[in-house]
């Protein structure tokens, strides 16, 4: 399978150079209670361990990007989940379920819509026999209204 591995390595290099243009951060959620910052008056939440910080891309998932969350007690869906996917190089660690993903820098300064959002890893990052890039399913976290 050396021929396939060579082709996948070339594809992975192309994807890293042309698609993984933003800087992403994958961290475990912080543990503990938030602390009041007396200077700002805001709650500061504990920072978790950073698992990866480097090149990546966050993209809407193919298909229906928003899925209703069914609640058996209501006759209608109360909330939705926005499905995204995280692309990282194969050299990046496999993100665990419930890790928090943020985009810390975008390659195009005119396109800052990804900044300030966060996503939760819906499951552990993918792994397979033939891969060119690591793909992890994400659910967008809702901003407080």
End-to-end Cα distance = 52 Å
Q: What structural class do you assign from the helix and strand content?
A: mainly beta
Shape: globular
The profile of the biggest β sheet is:
6 strands, antiparallel, barrel
The CATH class name reads: Mainly Beta
User: What Rg do the Cα atoms give?
Assistant: 18 Å
* Strand arrangement, major sheet: 1-4-6-9-8-7
Instruction: Tell me, rounded to a whole number, the average pLDDT.
Output: 83
- Helix and strand pattern: HEEEEEEEEE
Assign the CATH superfamily. Answer: Bacteriophage SPP1 head-tail adaptor protein
Number of strands: 9
Task: Report the CATH architecture.
Answer: Beta Barrel
What amount of the residues lies in strands? 35-45%
Low-confidence stretches: none
Structure description:
The protein is mainly beta and 145 residues long. It has one domain: Thrombin, subunit H, CATH 2.40.10.270. Helix content is 12%, strand content 36%. The strands form two sheets. Strands 1-4-6-9-8-7 form a six-stranded antiparallel beta barrel. It has a two-stranded antiparallel ribbon with strand order 2-3. The longest helix has 17 residues, at 2-18. The mean pLDDT is 83.
Summarize the structure.
This protein has 145 residues and is mainly beta. It is built from one helix and nine strands. It has a six-stranded antiparallel barrel.
Offer a few descriptive terms.
1 helix; six-stranded antiparallel barrel; Thrombin, subunit H; 145 residues; mainly beta
Map the helices and strands.
Layout: H1 2-18, E1 22-27, E2 35-36, E3 43-44, E4 50-60, E5 66-69, E6 79-88, E7 100-105, E8 118-121, E9 134-140
Antiparallel strand pairs: 1-4, 1-7, 2-3, 4-6, 5-6, 6-9, 7-8, 8-9
